[in-house]
Specification:
The chain is an alpha/beta fold. It has twelve helices and 20 strands. The relative contact order is 0.10. The protein binds alpha-D-glucopyranose and calcium ion (CA). The site of alpha-D-glucopyranose has 10 residues, from loops.
């Protein structure tokens, strides 16, 4: 692995609309973010993932990019962005941007050019069928809006036309290009030009949106050979031109690391290990994950799937563990603040690069049934503005109409929690500070010692032993640690070595040395 800084990185994810509004127009902005860099640093974070900051009509929260070489004026000027980047760097904070490679906005100039009725230089930059009257099976399309004879294939919402990286299996040669065609190659080179533009400007890398979506008809998510070939080519470009830059994928499969990503998000889908830990619910909405105190989770299933994923990726990349993200329901209120501590402690003491979604450090809650804004739909409830204080709009904005309703909560705000030594905020700081003192946590040493049914999860990181009990009842882990083993970090009551093994209090997390 060529990159060095990612190993000890701890990220803070900022959704720019919602973080801090400096000019009272109701939207967060660059100046607002710059003013909060010290706060981010105070948490123990040394990196930021910034959700899309590009010029966009915001029909999917900015994941519909109109101009890839321009910042959104909603967030400020080009100079404001550069100042944000420079100030972050001066404080020792890296910044990765959100790269949206698979699709543009339907208002993107290259797309509009490709949509004209006569062939031109952009004709093959996007995927167009040659028939405006039907939709090819297995695809989503958009027809009747532009004069080109055909329909445009969309990658996500109908406002997001798919860029043409070609097809692996070509079924319809009249409009599907091979991923090895010149047209597909040109799209890839265009993408590299976007990356170079922002890296030259100082960005430290990218979180890559829908990274597995480039080449069509490319097989299973765990394979995607042609898409992987493209990313390996892009990674080679980075390694030679920008060796410090990192690529973090939204792919959620070990294949991402084989495809050249430095890290990949283990997201809340595909029944993956992260879901087994804290996300899974049954059809009725009842929690069936390891951290659900009803004991319906399956620690062993988690251990098995995590081990498998980790073994496949540990030599070449990292698992990115999220507290949540802009697409995912926040863990609160499903879990109490006490449970959140256990979850954060577990997530971040397993081998990973931690990602904290803004507000999760204070336990901001997912707001159910929040009316959708900018096609957030049910994701909108995770995007409410940051809760800084008990002032107007929780200190986020002085506007009379912030872009989303703000939650004012006496306990769940930064100001209140700063003052309270026992707050979740101060817990997060302590956890990250502790994690930083022990190189075991950023090593590839991991051994699950015991995890059966409802019994506590136990794992070793080098010479450290971690014991977690998510249930409301005391448990015994039939695992021995030295009788004098010292607890060096705990959530709740410390576990204690006993004759039968380790006696683990309800709702507790302990690290023994
Ligand atoms: C990713 C983003 C999500 C966006 C989608 C389409 O999943 O995280 O917010 O809507 O891609 O770009
Ligand atoms: Ca603003």
């Amino acid at each position: 692995m060529t990159n060095t800084w990612l190993k000890s990185a701890v990220f803070y994810e900022i959704y720019p609309n919602s973080f801090m509004d400096s000019n009272g127009d109701g939207y967060g902005d660059f100046k607002g973010m710059t003013s909060k860099l010290d706060y981010i640093k105070s948490l123990g974070c040394n990196a930021i993932w910034l959700n899309p900051h590009y010029d966009s009509p915001f029909k999917d929260g900015g994941y519909d990019v109109r101009d890839y070489f321009k910042v959104s004026s909603r967030f400020g000027t080009e100079a404001d962005f550069d100042e944000f980047l420079a100030t972050a760097h001066a404080k020792g904070i890296k910044v990765i941007l959100d790269l949206v490679p698979g699709h543009t906005s339907e208002e993107n100039a290259d797309f509009l050019r490709s949509a004209e009725s006569t062939p031109n230089e952009m004709y093959d930059r996007f995927i167009w069928t040659d028939d405006p009257w039907s939709c090819p099976q297995g695809f989503k399309n958009n027809s009747g809006r532009f004069d080109r004879h055909g329909s445009s294939i969309v990658n996500f919402f109908c406002t997001q036309p798919a860029l043409n990286y070609g097809f692996n299996r070509v079924d319809e040669p009249s409009w599907q290009h091979s991923y090895k065609s010149e047209a597909a190659f040109k799209t890839r080179e265009w993408l590299k030009s976007v990356m170079r533009f922002w890296l030259d400007r100082g960005a430290d890398g990218f979180r890559v949106d829908m990274a597995d979506s480039l080449v069509k008809n490319d097989g299973e998510q765990s394979e995607k050979p042609a898409t992987s070939e493209i990313w390996r080519d892009i990674r080679a470009m980075l390694d030679s031109e920008y060796p410090d830059a990192v690529l973090v994928s939204e792919w959620a499969n070990p294949q991402a690391i084989r495809a050249g990503f430095h890290a990949d998000f283990m997201l809340n889908h595909h029944a993956n290990p992260y879901s087994k830990l804290a996300r899974m619910q049954d059809e009725k909405g009842e929690g069936i994950s390891y951290f659900d105190a009803n004991g319906k989770g399956d620690a062993q299933a988690f251990v098995k799937s995590f081990t498998d994923w980790f073994e496949q990726t540990k030599n070449d990349g990292y698992i990115a563990h999220i507290t949540c993200n802009h697409d995912t329901p926040r863990l609160a209120p499903r879990y109490s603040q006490e449970q959140l501590r256990l979850i954060y402690a577990t997530l971040f003491t397993l081998p990973c690069v931690p990602f904290i979604y803004y507000g999760d450090e204070i336990g901001m809650k997912y707001v159910k049934d929040m009316p959708s804004v900018e096609c957030g739909f049910n994701r909108t409830g995770s995007r409410t503005p940051m809760q800084w204080s008990m002032e107007k709009n929780a200190g986020f904005s002085t506007s009379d109409k912030p872009f989303l309703p703000v939650v004012n909560d006496k306990q769940i705000n930064v100001q209140a929690q700063e003052k309270d030594k026992k707050s979740l905020l101060n817990f997060m700081r302590a956890l990250l500070a502790f994690r930083k003192t022990r190189k075991e946590f950023i090593s590839t040493d991991l051994e699950f010692v015991h995890a059966k049914g409802e019994e506590p999860l136990v794992y070793k990181r080098g010479g450290l032993t971690v014991v977690v009990n998510p249930l409301n009842v005391k448990q015994v882990a039939p695992v021995k640690v030295a009788p004098k083993a010292k607890a060096i970090f705990a959530v709740g009551k410390e576990a204690k070595p006993s004759k039968e093994g380790i006696s683990v209090p309800p709702l507790s997390f302990t690290v023994f040395e």
